[in-house]
Amino acid sequence: MTTELTVTRGRGAEPRPPRRDDNDDIGSGKSWRYKLTRLDVKFSPYLYIAPFFVLFAVVGLFPLLYTAYISLFDWELGGDEQPFVGIDNYTELLADSQFWNAMVNTLSIFAMSTLPQIVTAVLLAVLLNTALRGRTGWRMGVLLPYVASLVALTIIFGDLFGVQYGIINDLIEMVGLDRIDWQAERWWSHVAIASMVNWRWTGYNALIVLAAMQAIPRDIYEAAWVDGASKVRQFFSITLPMLRPTLIFVVVTSTIGGLQIFTEPLLFSPSAGVNGGATNQYQTVVLYMYSSGFRSFDLGYASAMAWVLFVVIIAIAGINFMLTRKLASSGEA
Amino acid sequence: MRYRRAGLAKVLACTAVLAAAATACGSGESGTSADGKVELTVATFNQFGYEELFKEYEAANPNVKITERKTGQASPHHQNLFTKLGAGSGLADIEAVEEGFLSQVMAKSGQFENLKEIGPKDVREDRWLQWKTDAVTTKDGKLIGYGTDIGPLAMCYRKDLFEAAGLPSDPEGVKPLFATWDSYFEAGDRYVAATGGKAWFDSAAQIFNPMHNQASVGYFDRDDKLVIETNDDKKIFEQVAGAVARKQSAKLAAWSPEWETGFKQSAFATKTCPSWMLGVIEGNAGPEHKGKWAVTAAFPGGGGNWGGSYLTVPKQGKNKAEAVKLAAWLTAPEQQIKAFKAKGTFPSQTEALISPELLNQTNEYFGGEKVGMLFSEQANKVAAAQYKGPKDGEIQDNVVSPALLAVEQGTSVGDAWKTVVEGAQKAAK
């Protein structure tokens, strides 16, 4: 509806190239100016969007390609020479147990964060979509964790999950269970880190889903209501399928973000730093990449890792895209 | 049509500016300002206490203008240093280097000026403590840095906890406990037994590092060959791990929030204590523990050093002749005493170490102890600089310390040592 409106409006309408017969009265002396106008109309739009693409080429595309180039060398930062080694970095990487350990950690933290996060976000959006008192307040409230500084958040969570003096362990002990070593035990450390990710992103995703939910026409619900569909049936047969494009967006962005987790594991224990725990139990791929590149200064190896991670992210984002499309299409979730 | 053309021009200009802004990064340091003054940049981190000294130098040398580039923490400062060494430009005229990163800098010593060659001839090597200068001298005898401050090690301990456990508690009486590492761990056993299992020290890595540094051979021999399997490290590692098994460690990794809380909770009774640690203890333990912490002029196995920095002059600088003059002036005993008074950085110059201003410094939090004299004495106990290979810092921080943490978290000593050897070999490769 809205698109039709803008087209009929005078201002903002697309400039139409002047037709030749419009200019019949203009003499041949003005054809230079006419040509300029034509060029202007043809190329100006590209120039208007050029700044983005020029910037992207400089700070996005170039580093991407240069990283691929570096990954073929034994490139030590500040080293005297950088010999060409072909795909040696890649073969070494695929045989590196620490890399696979980091990959498993990343996928584990990613699974623990993305899945519950999106389910919670959709449910939260359903709740926020009901007639609550002070709706705006609630809606803004879920965004607060996202606004807060990530570093401050991580430090606070690190404190909460403290092994000896953390509140969460105190609570667990109060209930009568054993204290958990959130640092030392691999899966528990993943739970702790995933909870930071969830805390930060759930509200943000809920708002995006909520916006999409509000765009679903009410009359579809009314028709379903008349046909006697229950609220649950309405949710699965109307809401979810209509949310499909938004869910795909949310899943793909969370995949990209989730596989690049860095700050949370880095700051989870300030003393562990780039190691991600004493035995690398929560070292993610990006953390290992950073450690190789900027702790060991082995830029070639780190670049190879960056490319492998890039491919993995594209693959997983693709799988998620298909899964989401399937899940949210037929109405049979 | 006129307005349209203006629009087009604007877009073009805009694109050009953006492109220029994105590509032209950090070039064009002329070295001299418009009024013909020599511009010197000095890159430091944390607190060097140089602000007033710069003003003083500028007043005495009207042709020099000094800009300080200060980074909050040591880590990003050195990362910047290594990145720009790699890039070949962008460094300050004088770059500060911290002891923990020195081995990496020494591995790239070719990119720094030999200060023996270009420095003022009146700067003699005996200006500094022998070990301080030795650590920054390359194998072929080049001196690439002037020493600024140091962190001589002493022992800090909890007087009240010692008393309660029936151990001697006055600074003279505890000295025999801290004579050797054997006596230290033995006292630890007595403490753990008397207190029903309270910890003796904060974490294993904090004990291993000074023990390792006291050994005659470090991770690498002088030919940069990894010798971790044949030097004393295995013995030291097992000794520390043994103490962990006997419940002497509070298992609080240094600089973690839990470690900071540990000071308040009286989680451990002793702390290996470089001069700058006094402030850290005071901050973490809080006013309620005032007078309970004490420090004594003893350190197991002799002496040691943790921390301290150097000023270097990278070869890529524009005003190396002027830079080295400033670096020499800043690291002279008179100036370092002023920096000590301003920010408490403990001087590395022999003359500064006997200055009355330093010797008379006391610390109220530590029961009015004459800490200036105490740490001056400790600084002279440091035997010799251990040779550090290029990957020394990385092995220490990323291989050995995590392995000791793993031991504290339940990994067996044998497995942990295996990961140390493998990790060190990987790092040294």
Description:
The complex is a heterodimer of chains A (333) and B (429). The radius of gyration of chain A is 27 Å and the shape is flat. Chain A is 68% helix and 0% strand. Residues 1-13 of chain A have low confidence and may be disordered. Chain A has 333 residues and is mainly α. In chain A, α4 (97-128) packs parallel to α9 (186-214), α4 runs antiparallel to α12 and α12 (244-258) runs antiparallel to α15 (299-327). Chain A has helices spanning 2-8, 31-70, 88-94, 97-128, 135-141, 144-147, 150-160, 167-174, 186-214, 218-226, 231-242, 244-258, 263-268, 285-294, 299-327. Chain A is built from 15 helices and no strands. With 429 residues, chain B is of the alpha+beta class. Helices cover 44% and strands 12% of the residues of chain B. Chain B has helices at 2-23, 51-60, 74-87, 102-106, 115-118, 130-134, 159-164, 181-195, 204-214, 233-245, 257-264, 277-285, 320-330, 333-343, 356-359, 371-379, 392-408, 413-428; strands at residues 38-45, 64-71, 94-98, 146-158, 270-274, 293-296, 305-312, 346-347. In chain B, strands 1, 2, 3, 4, 5, 6, 7 and 8 form an 8-stranded mixed sheet that branches. In chain B, α17 (392-408) runs antiparallel to α18 (413-428). The longest helix of chain B is centred in the N-terminal third of the chain and has 22 residues, at 2-23. The radius of gyration of chain B is 25 Å and the shape is globular. The model of chain B is unreliable at 1-30 (pLDDT under 50). At the A-B interface, α2 and α7 of A face α1, α3, α11 and α17 of B.
